[in-house]
Amino acid sequence: MIFVELSMLFCFGPADIFGGLAYLYDTSPKGGYTKLFGDPKNHYPKATFRQYFGVWLILRTRSRNYEAERNRAGSLCWKRLAKMKAQC
User: Fold this and answer.
1) Pair 7, 52: CB distance under 8 Å
2) Over the stretch 9-39, which tens digit does the pLDDT of each residue have?
3) Is 78 a residue whose pLDDT tops 80?
């Protein structure tokens, strides 16, 4: 997932609840982009950026760790199945 999607997910919930990616990238006053970052013509505070970046960094790192663990567990499972099949 990219930065905007993860920030929206963590701070407000899944974008699908609000209308999907079209809502998320809508820069109108009622759109998701404005809800997340404020007025697109003005910069938002550095503290907000740091918060969103921290969320993104943690979730992305956790996602990669989970994927690596899942792949490792999956390969162990397949090895066990192959061993059981060989014994039959």
Assistant:
1) yes
2) 878 888 788 888 888 888 888 888 888 888 7
3) no
How far, in Å, CA of 9 to CA of 51, rounded?
13
Q: Calculate Rg over the CA atoms of the chain.
A: 20
DSSP assignment of 31-84, as one string?
Answer: SHHHHHHS-TTSPPPHHHHHHHHHHHHHHHHHHHHHHHHHHHHHHHHHHHHHHH
Closest by CA position to 1, among listed 82, 48, 56, 54: 56
Residue 27 gets which letter from DSSP?
Answer: -
Q: What is the pTM assigned to this prediction?
A: 0.56
